[in-house]
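Render this sequence as a predicted structure.
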Amino acid sequence: MSASAADWCVGPTPGVPQKAVLDVLSKRFGVSGTVRDLGSQQDRNFRVQPESGESYVLKVSNPATGPDALRAQCQAVEHLTTTAPGLRLPRARRGTDGEYLQPLRTESGELHCRLFDYVDGEPIMDSRYLAPHVIARLGELSGRITAGLAGFTPVGIVPSTMWDLRNALEVVESLAPHMSEAKDAQRVLRAALGAHRVVAAVADRLPVQMIHGDVTDNNVVFDRQRDGRPLPAGVIDFGDLSYGWTVAELAVTCTSILHHHGASPASVLPAVRAFHTVRPLGPDETAVLWPLIVLRASVLVASGRYDVQHDPGNAYAAAALEREWAMFEMATSQPVEVMTAQLCHELEQSATEAGRLARAHDQHSVLWASDGHAPGYEEQSVRLAVVDLSVHNDALHSGRWLSEGIESELVAHTLAEHPSARAVRTAHGEHRLTRARTDVTTSTATLALGVELHPRSSAVVHAPWAGTVVPGAGRALTLTRDDGPALFLDGVDATVERGPVVAGQPLGTVPGAGNGDGLWIQLSQLESAVVPPRFVSADLAAGWLAVCPDPTRLLVADPAPDCGVSAGAVPGESAAELLLRRDRAFARVQEHYYLEPPRIERGWRHHLVDTEARTYLDMLNNVTVLGHGHPVLSDAVHRQWQRLNTNSRFHYGSVVELSERLAELLPPELDTVFLVNSGSEAVDLALRLAWAATERQDVVAVGEAYHGWTFASDAVSTSIADNPNALVSRPSWVHTVPAPNSYRGRHRGTQAHRYGPEAAEAIAELARSGRAPAAFVAEAYYGNAGGMALPDGYLEQVYAATRAAGGLCIADEVQVGYGRLGTWFWGFEQQGVVPDIVTIAKSMGNGHPLGAVITRRGIADAYRSQGYFFASAGGSPVSSTVGLTVLDVLRDEGLRENASTVGAYLKAGLEALAERHPLIGAVHGNGLYLGVEFVRDRVTLEPATEETAAICERLRELGAIVQPTSDRQCVLKIKPPMCLTDRSADVFLSALDDVLSHGW
């Protein structure tokens, strides 16, 4: 070691009496005011608040920092005011003598002090979650400061410090022996040595400039956005300014991200991309970025432990120990090669440019031979069938992907389907649905980094190249070589011992399909001693696939003989690529959920699955009341489509049976059914029925409601969330009454009973004015406003007023009907009324386009005056079969009862969260029709609109699909499939608690 611990650790700044601080402020800077100690790891910082005017920070510098370095820090800030405009920076104030540096005398001697503008904002001292766009802004800020300092040359000498990553290994070697835990010290030292070797190979080619050296979460000030998330705005300290590798600035920034809640190595990628946009990274810089992150984390741990040991009273240093160790753990959790390959992928740089050259497919022999044939046997005779284990495989329907042994079953099926194939292989780089799991809040390791070979009969495994065999545990062995990737095999009954082998030499045998788990084959460019994982999650897919290249070419000399390759086994376009196609071909007004939506291609019960085999808890899909992929429904549709599908003017049984079943679910007087294709059409038809029956057109609707997109249903929709112009674009025949919102409306709590009489009087007044309504239309349970019950007696009073004026009462049950409320099958039952017309859809078809209008015979017959009614697909044989099957499953699986019990359990859990998290203003609803309303203040009820959107984005990251609702978009819309379980409710509650506790 060329330096001792004392050479790097400067020790604490001597104590500074407050009187001395006040004296220097008054005499040297002409400033007076109150002073508060801010704390620091090495310097002494004091907040100065004059009686009027701007605030300042007085920094008393450590004696080890020379005056040239201190002046350079002031000069750098002045330089950045020009080269990086708009950033908040701590500009130094000159003293009464015109100098930045002023002497401050203490009992320990004379110290230097400077006075800086106080930079408004707050650093992040805790480990709260940082959203990707916040991390990106942090990377952008780091890039702007780095680019802004590129031409800066200070006056005087700025010495190198322990924070200059060019000195990192020396620092760690000096300080690690002083760590109290020898095991931790060895880990840190090994990590630093490994990282240094990578950096040293290109160190002479790395650009060097003056860098800030500490653009970190704890040294950057943040503003709070409207959604409550922090947004980087400036930096508060230039104490680590020195010459260094330019890329080191980004490494420092990235390291600081790694201790935050929910962070992973992939969390830094937005920062890297943003930095690269401002100050492009060269290939060599990309190659050393992750090793420098490891070195930075190692220095932090070693220096932090040393400081606490030698300055036990340093609370600032002590408080940082836990997060410093978290950074180190995260920085070393993935191999450097993987992270470097991932970074190259993100920046569209080749791994070759970054110093890695894949050598997976040089000259080799074929790995295996079957039926006694030697390796290299004619490819046509060793054709391989490919088994599809991806999300796209139709054989994995009905939740079969969760079944134990499903992979072996599919292998056997594939062999039977391809009798000419001598073996079945899996696909490299495939996200296996068979490895996906439900009710988890983190990504599952589904990406295959190797392939499995399942020979039809016993096969011999041969060395594809010369190398050294190293036996592993069980039936595993590794074949290493000096000039290429290592080969990992598992499932071999080995016939060789540890030692060298030649190309083509037999290594062992693999039993035929059905007599074992097959042969696992994986290549790795990691250090030979490191056994790579077989499966990884999608966030670092590109990095892992680069270091674990495809071994398929070891199975046959030419991959062309593969047979049975399905579309699902071949990597498809990403979610982002598909989104671009959607944007080009699909009208943009047809919006999608989320800023970066996952590509959802499969569902099962109350879960959705994306193409990376990530499962999501579906807390939103009230359309699929039975759940996704229900086998009874799919089988029924398949059978009916094979038989017949046509329109309802033909005579067949299912349309009659469905109409009868629907009428039986309603009060006796509602005995006549129309079948349509959607909720919008149902509401539109209901209004037309009222117009025909009453021979007038005026309609009374309730505020903040959504009823559909057709002309008539849109006209009575008053929600400005769905249409910002809803209140000003309504036709003259639509009249509204206020939303009977008992939480935030004009009448709240016990006063909500006033809504009914007021609405009734408005209807009576409308009739007195000669505009008697044809109909009153309302959701029977207030869904669009957040899933809350109408005030008791509301519909009874309003219906009575409507009927007294000669109008009809329409209950819109499109969202709430079909047992979702648990206690009641229909929303209007909660109000104790019987409407004249009921509209239903959504749940009625479990996602199939199916709706209905149920009314009295006389009202239905009145439509004759308008002509006849017809809907091409409404009531078709397939649609009728869907409707009947949904009713059967609702009954047979007790889904209404499940909605009642699980809904009560979920609501109780949400109410418990409300007791701990003041952002939750109220929990609305019943059964599995719930709403969680977020407010910034429980007294003023200011809607937390932006927070709600951000919370939904974060919940999606945690695997829960939910969206905002209400005109204020501040309510979580919780309407999951009615098969939701208590366990899944717990998963959602845990995820929501995580977000509210740690940020979004």
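Summary. The first strand starts at residue 34 and ends at 37. Residues 631-892 form a domain with the Aspartate Aminotransferase; domain 2 fold (CATH 3.40.640.10).
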